[in-house]
Recover the amino acids of this structure.
């Protein structure tokens, strides 16, 4: 089985898990009053079950079948200081363009992120950093860059960049977030 086929099977399983766990969480929200207000708990459960569990199973199966170390499966390599600085600079330079596109898109799409910002502002700082910064960054990068991007490494460069980027954007299910993603 090729790496690309393995990756595409993983994506199908991941999407299935994501919808199943989102559906289960929606039912829990209806059955248990106030669980939606537990943003940290909700985010942790969603990321652990929807992202972490499929990624862990994928890495375990591939390790067992191929003997390929986890670091190689995910394409993890040290980053140089200059590459890190260039990535940060690129992020700052593209920000005004993304803000303009987001502002224009608000004419056509509702910004659902702004509603959740009010409830997040009431969280303790440590919980906010964990819930909004660390958990999403770790798990989304693990799935999108680690497994999906690396799994497409045998394809043309434009495909390697485009497919994981589109998947990452669609994963947010919000047009404004998808633009930034």
């Amino acid at each position: 089985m090729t790496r690309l086929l393995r990756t595409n099977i993983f994506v199908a399983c991941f999407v299935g898990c994501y919808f199943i766990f989102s559906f289960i969480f929606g039912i829990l929200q209806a059955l248990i009053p106030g669980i939606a207000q537990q943003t940290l708990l909700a985010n942790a459960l969603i990321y652990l079950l929807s992202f972490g569990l499929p990624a862990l199973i994928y890495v375990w199966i591939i390790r067992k079948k191929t003997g390929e170390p986890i670091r190689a499966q995910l394409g993890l390599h040290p980053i140089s200081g200059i590459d890190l600085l260039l990535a940060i600079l690129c992020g700052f330079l593209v920000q005004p363009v993304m803000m303009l596109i987001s502002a224009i898109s608000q004419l056509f799409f509702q910004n659902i992120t702004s509603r959740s910002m009010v409830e997040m502002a009431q969280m303790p700082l440590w919980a906010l950093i964990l819930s909004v910064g660390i958990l999403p960054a770790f798990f989304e990068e693990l799935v999108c860059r680690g497994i999906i991007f690396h799994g497409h490494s045998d394809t043309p460069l434009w495909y390697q960049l485009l497919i994981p980027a589109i998947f990452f954007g669609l994963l947010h299910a919000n047009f404004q977030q998808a633009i930034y993603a």
